[in-house]
UniProtKB/TrEMBL annotation:
PANTHER family: STEROL 3-BETA-GLUCOSYLTRANSFERASE, STEROL 3-BETA-GLUCOSYLTRANSFERASE UGT80A2. Residues 391-404 have a biased composition (Polar residues). Keywords: Transferase. InterPro entries: EryCIII-like_C, Glycosyltransferase_28, GlycoTrans_28_N, UDP_glucos_trans. This is UDP-glucose--sterol glucosyltransferase. SUPFAM superfamilies: UDP-Glycosyltransferase/glycogen phosphorylase. Residues 285-387 form the Erythromycin biosynthesis protein CIII-like C-terminal domain. Residues 376-404 are annotated as: Disordered. Residues 3-65 form the Glycosyltransferase family 28 N-terminal domain.
Length: 404
């Protein structure tokens, strides 16, 4: 049986599916991961077949305002949709669709009859339990949360309007708006598996039955991989350091962020590890190490705390390691995850990216490293995550669907 996983966006939107794909392959499935060309090495390093999706996330404006985000997203999705059908060949037996690719993949399912399952990294269905993840972190009350959730879906539908029209025309399907197709999927109780932990987001009781929270899918890394000697030497040369990194966020802010990071670490009397990331963080010194791309699973358990942008993947990785965090959310769903971490007690209150200073960061680091309550909360959440098996639950759903 041939399974195609389609994912698009930043590294955090793609990397978790490498681990899921490897687990499905171990179970005997032929697995292809379709993503933009940037992630071809990531996919192939996991031993999975790579399929190219059009579009590129690199070089798209760095604005974080909602209008800028909407324009950037619409341009990306339109480009993505132009060649999306080419990624699915006649030999595909099952489509696994991410949050970003599902509104395109639905039309392929309609045109070809290939069954599909949603594999989402964020909760998108309206609920009274919390507001939509992309509009803020403060609850508006149950009725208003649901209303805001419906509004957020309508805004997302607008992003897909042009891509949907072009794709349906190419597939010789009758015209249908993104909202119309989405409502059909809801009425059919289309299955969506959510790859995050119930420690952060318990499954809302007002969701339809086809929506499940299964636990995280973890990025694949070689089980024999070890940290470079330089990293090991630094880790062994003193007390556990603090990690500071912003992943694919904050491009162009490297000099300012590096200065803030070093000043904060020294003010708090802590050693630090800076991850360059898209921002290009870098610093030299006996108490600071700069590194590139390193698997979180190898590094995070060795740390005193993690300072990060609160992307879904990094948030989960810090919890998995049982390490407390200081979050500096930049945009999109990051304020949501940052607030969830703080509510668990596994992080300090978020520092909005635009409000970040060395003094604020140092104060938060002092609290998160030296107050045992944060460490206990993170350790407890880590045990919760260890008991979940997102890939196993996904495999079980696929087997039930295909055997039935």
């Amino acid at each position: 049986m041939r399974i195609l996983i389609a994912a698009a966006g930043s590294r955090g939107d793609v990397a978790p599916y490498t681990g899921l794909g490897v687990e499905l392959r171990r179970a005997g499935y032929d697995v292809v991961l379709a993503a933009t060309d940037t992630f071809a090495p990531l996919v192939r390093e996991a031993g999975l077949e790579f399929r190219s999706l059009p579009a590129d996330t690199r070089g798209r404006g760095g604005g974080t305002g909602r209008r800028e985000l909407m324009r950037t997203a619409a341009a990306f999705i339109t480009e993505l949709g132009q060649g999306f059908a080419d990624a699915v060949d006649e030999g595909t037996d099952l489509l696994l669709l991410s949050t970003t690719t599902a509104p395109l993949g639905w039309h392929l399912t309609e045109a070809t009859g290939t069954p599909s399952i949603g594999v989402y990294l964020q909760p998108t269905a309206p609920t009274g339990d919390f507001p939509p993840v992309v509009t803020g972190s403060r609850s508006l009350g149950r009725l208003a949360n649901r209303a805001a959730g419906r509004f957020a879906l309508r805004m997302a539908d607008r992003v897909y309007t042009q891509a949907t029209a072009q794709l349906r025309q190419r597939l010789a399907l009758p015209a249908a708006s993104p909202a119309e197709v989405r409502r059909r999927q809801d009425r059919a109780n289309w299955p969506i598996l959510h790859g995050f932990s119930t420690a952060l987001v318990p499954r809302p009781s007002d969701w339809r039955s086809g929506l499940k929270v299964v636990g995280n899918w973890w990025p694949h890394h070689d089980a024999t991989q070890r940290l470079p000697a330089e990293h090991e030497n630094f880790l062994g040369a003193g007390p556990p350091p603090v990690f500071i990194g912003f992943g694919s966020m904050a491009s162009g802010d490297g000099e300012r962020l590096s200065e803030i990071a070093v000043r904060a670490l020294r003010r708090a009397r802590l050693r630090g590890v800076l991850q360059a990331g898209s921002a290009g963080l870098a610093a030299d010194g006996d108490d600071v190490l700069t590194l590139g791309d390193v698997p979180h699973a190898l590094l995070f358990p060795r740390l005193a705390a993690v300072v990060h942008h609160a992307g879904a993947g990094t948030t989960a990785a810090a919890l998995r390691a049982g390490v407390p965090a200081v979050t500096v959310p930049v945009t999109a769903d990051q304020p949501f995850w940052a607030t969830r971490l703080a509510a668990l007690g596994a992080a300090t209150d978020p520092i909005p990216f635009r409000s970040l200073t060395a003094e604020r960061l140092a104060d938060s680091l002092d609290r998160v490293v030296r107050q045992q309550a944060h460490h206990r909360a993170a350790a407890s959440a880590g045990k919760h995550l260890a008991a979940e098996n997102g890939a196993g639950q996904t495999l079980k759903t696929i087997q039930q669907m295909t055997d039935g």
